[in-house]
Amino acid sequence: MTKEQLEAFRLAYAKSVKKCIKGKNKNGKNIAEQSDWVFFDRKLIQDLLDMTDPISGGLKLYFGQYNKENLDILPIDRKDRDDYIGRISIAVAAANKTESGIIDLGTESKNSTDLTRNSGGSPRNGGLLCPPNCNP
């Protein structure tokens, strides 16, 4: 996920959910019930933690919302991609706490060609979202 993609993801959230305006689904209708949870696998979490300082490092979680313009940040092979439109989610970034604040690590530039959740940088996106993936 590039810095620009993260900004667009967060802007979609700021324009609607953060202001209590309902997100719109793929058909342009209001989302009646918003996201319940997001699952990120252990490997993704560990890869991000491995980027951080063992004492001052951690994870920063960014709230965002999917829309038609930023749906390309989801893995291409995700079968239910369109069902994510209008739903809030989370992007996870490796970060270190410093004297000047909490600094994201490994942010990719807008020239990145590998935009999948498994790219080497931070932040990462593409966790399984409920709904639509709410199986027990």
Quick synopsis:
The chain is α+β, with helices and mostly antiparallel strands and 136 residues long.
The biggest beta sheet is recorded as: 3 strands, antiparallel
**Taking strands numbered 1, 2, ... along the chain, how are they ordered across the largest sheet?**
2-3-4
Strand % is 15-25%
Binned, the helix content reads 10-25%
| Spatial gap, N to C terminus | 29 Å
Taking pLDDT < 50 over at least 5 consecutive residues as the criterion, the unreliable ranges are 108-119
Shape: globular
Descriptive account of the structure:
With 136 residues, the chain is of the alpha+beta class. The protein has one domain. The chain is built from two helices and five strands. It has a three-stranded antiparallel sheet with strand order 2-3-4. 26% of the residues are buried.
What's the layout of helices and strands?
Elements: H1 3-15, E1 37-39, H2 42-50, E2 57-65, E3 88-98, E4 101-104, E5 128-130
Antiparallel strand pairs: 1-5, 2-3, 3-4
Q: Which terms summarize this structure?
A:
136 residues, three-stranded antiparallel sheet, 22% strand, 16% helix, alpha+beta
